[in-house]
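Input (structure):
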């Protein structure tokens, strides 16, 4: 296949995020071409103010793709969209899509679409965020109609830093821990590197496994008509997801 005939996915990421692009490239394989635009660097702002500023400049950041034709775009920053609550997030994405001329979804909306498609009504939330932001995340999912059975915090050593969490820290927090219910395991945060840990977990659990980047890749493939067992086999986590019966 001609490389440049593939559908084009735009991804918007925070400037310091080292994880989203490598995970997207690994997940979509040769099914999509991935292009990125980064939020501006905002020195001196606290986390909440920075996240609110990301929402304020998102339309302009998407416009940074210029005249490039995109087939879809994902906003790979879950935390900023938690601040909007589910209804506000959905309306925001609709406005962005209308302005851009192609479908735009936040990673949070992609997760909600995946939960609906695969019939997940409950989840265990695995979060690398500071407690206040984890609480905001939990409230977002509850307001979206999902049952949150448990929250598992995953700090990086003695601090909360999604970009520094290791595979070992994720697995140490989950293995040997009884998890209630039978809902999905949701790993939030596009900056927490999850693929290696999930490949290990996938061998030991039948639960639905979702992450911000995995759900976003699934949504993008489906949106451009490239979702299916053959395409999904490019990565084992998508191949596993393709085996889950979709809800009517």
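Output (sequence):
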């Amino acid at each position: 296949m001609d490389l440049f005939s593939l559908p084009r996915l735009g991804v918007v990421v925070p400037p310091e995020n080292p994880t989203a692009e490598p995970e997207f490239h690994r997940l979509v394989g040769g099914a999509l071409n991935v292009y990125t635009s980064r939020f501006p660097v905002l020195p001196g702002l606290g986390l909440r103010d920075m996240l609110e500023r990301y929402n304020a400049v998102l339309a302009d950041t998407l416009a940074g793709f210029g005249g490039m034709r995109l087939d879809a775009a994902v906003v790979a920053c879950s935390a900023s969209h938690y601040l909007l609550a589910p209804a506000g997030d959905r309306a925001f994405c609709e406005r962005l899509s209308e302005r851009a001329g192609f479908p735009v979804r936040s990673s949070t909306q992609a997760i909600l679409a995946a939960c609906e498609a695969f019939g997940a009504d409950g989840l265990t939330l695995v979060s690398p965020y500071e407690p206040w932001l984890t609480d905001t995340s939990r409230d977002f999912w509850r307001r979206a109609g999902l049952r949150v059975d448990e929250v598992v915090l995953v700090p990086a050593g003695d601090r909360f830093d999604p970009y520094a969490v290791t595979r070992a820290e994720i697995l140490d927090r989950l293995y040997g821990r009884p998890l209630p219910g039978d809902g999905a395991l949701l790993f939030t945060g596009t900056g927490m590197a999850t693929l290696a840990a999930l490949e290990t977990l996938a061998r030991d659990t039948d639960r639905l496994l979702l992450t911000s980047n995995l759900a976003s890749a699934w949504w993008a493939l489906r949106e451009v008509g490239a979702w299916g067992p053959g395409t999904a086999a490019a990565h084992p986590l998508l191949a596993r997801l393709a085996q889950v019966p979709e809800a009517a």
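Notes: The longest strand covers residues 147-153. Residues 8-111+213-242 form a domain with the Rossmann fold fold (CATH 3.40.50.12500).
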